[in-house]
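Data follows
____________
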Amino acid sequence: MVHVLMDLPFDKSAMEPYISKETMEYHHGKHHAGYVKKLNTLIKNTTYEKMSLEEIIMTADGGIFNNAAQVYNHDFYFNGLRSSKSAPSTALATLIELDFSTMETLKKAFLEAASGLFGSGWTWLSINTQGNLEIETFSNAGNPLLSGHTPLLTCDVWEHAYYIDYRNARAEYLEKWWALINWDFVSENLAAYTNK
């Protein structure tokens, strides 16, 4: 199977002024595209060539794992953005209330986890094996699939996600990113988990 760079579900300038068109061009057009290209090169004529991204992530290591996971993670990140306001579904709002009391408590915990992640990596909101919401941070290319959890939302905290716009001000980027969350996408991921 040849993996293909996803099309952004929005115009490259749609997230301005919070995330610039220039950042999108580099983040999606260079970094994300680079992972796709490298993955296809690495898996050619191997057993991984016929696998989905999820299957590769669960079975590979080294460069093949890193590139497959980065493609998956970036797909998740970009699908989780939208420029217009959205809100969690009733089911998601209920789960947030059960596990975090309020949306503001979830936001504070998530942004603190993302801000505190040393170096490059990802912060995720996922469903753990007990069916509860959990905030997880992973260095480099890690993601909740490795924990047996179901990912709902992710934030990219590699510097390439924000350095053009915010330099080293990761906390400012995170605050602006929160305003761009596509809660419809997060709610759809929860519904898929609930209905499987």
Remarks:
- DSSP finds eight helices and three strands in the chain.
- The helical segments are 21-43, 53-59, 62-79, 90-100, 103-116, 163-166, 170-178, 183-195.
